[in-house]
Amino acid sequence: MLRLGGVASAAYLVGFPAIQEHFQKRGIDLDWVLYSSWDALVDAFVSKEIDLAWNGPLAYVKIKRRLSDPCQVVAMRDVDVDLVTHFITQPDSDITTVEDLNGKRFALARRGSVEAGLLAYHYLKQVGINPKEDLALCTFSDDRQPSSLPDQREVVELVQKGEYDAGAVSRTTMEKMEEDGSLAPGSIRIFWTRPGYSHCCFTAQSDVDRELSQKITQAFVSMDYNDPLGKRAMDAEGCKAFLPGITEGWETLEQVALEEGLI
C-alpha cells in the first residue's frame, strides 16, 4: 500500500480522501496521513514513513537536499507550473517601474508562501532594490499585525487601502480574487512580472519503480474536474487539473533559501 503524506489542513481532509478513492478505482491501494508541519512531513518522507508527499516548494527543496538519491516529481497542480509573481500598486500610483519603489512602502506575504514572500524579497534585490536601505518600509506578513485574510489577499488589501505603496502577489491569487469578485477590475495595477517557475508538487520516493511511478502520474492526470470526485479533490487543492510533474525551475528557490538561511 502506498502512503500519501501532507500537512494538516481542512482542505486536505476533503481532497486526500477523494484522491484515495480515485486511486483505488484505478487499482492503486493508497492511504494518507497528515502531519503538523512541513518539517515533520519532510522528516517522514526522508525516513520513508510515507511513499508520496504533497510538498510545498521549500519542503521539496529540503527533501532533495537531504536525500542522496533524487526523489521523483510525479504530479503537479496546473496552477503550480509556470507560476508567476506580480508586483502591484494602485491604478493612479506614480510607480511605473521597479526603480520607482525607492523610498516607498512594500508589502510581502509570508516568508513561507515563497512566490509572494521569500522569492519576491529576492526579486527586489535582483532588480537593484535593497529592501532594508532603499525602501521606507518592507515587511513580511509574519511581522505585521495578524489579519483575518490569507497573507496574499492581505497584501492586496493593504495596497488598495494605501497603507503600503506596492506589494507582491502571485498571478494565481489575483485570478482567484477576480473570479470570486473580491478584486474589482481596475482596482490594482501590475507594474512588474517575474517569468514563471515551478511550485508545489507531489513527490514520490526514488525507489518507487518506474511502472508504478507512471501509474501514479496517470492516476493524477486522469482526474477530471467535471467528475464529482475530481472536482472535490481539485477544489480542495485549488486547481482545475493535475499535470505530470517537472523537475526544472527549482534552482532559484534553492539558491534563495540558502541565502536567507532557510535550508
Features:
2 domains; alpha/beta; D-Maltodextrin-Binding Protein, domain 2; single chain; 9 helices; 263 residues; five-stranded mixed beta sheet; globular
Q: How would you summarize this macromolecular structure in one to three sentences?
A:
By secondary structure, this protein is an alpha/beta fold. It is built from 9 helices and 11 strands. The protein folds into 2 domains: 2-80 and 198-259, D-Maltodextrin-Binding Protein, domain 2; 86-193, Periplasmic binding protein-like II (D-Maltodextrin-Binding Protein, domain 2), CATH 3.40.190.
Summarize the SSE layout with pairings.
Layout: E1 2-7, H1 10-25, E2 30-35, H2 38-46, E3 52-55, H3 57-66, E4 72-77, E5 85-89, E6 105-107, H4 118-126, E7 137-139, H5 151-160, E8 166-170, H6 171-180, E9 189-193, E10 201-204, H7 210-221, H8 228-237, E11 242-244, H9 251-259
Parallel strand pairs: 1-2, 1-3, 6-7, 6-8
Antiparallel strand pairs: 3-10, 4-10, 4-11, 5-8, 5-9
Helix pairs in contact: 1-8, 2-3
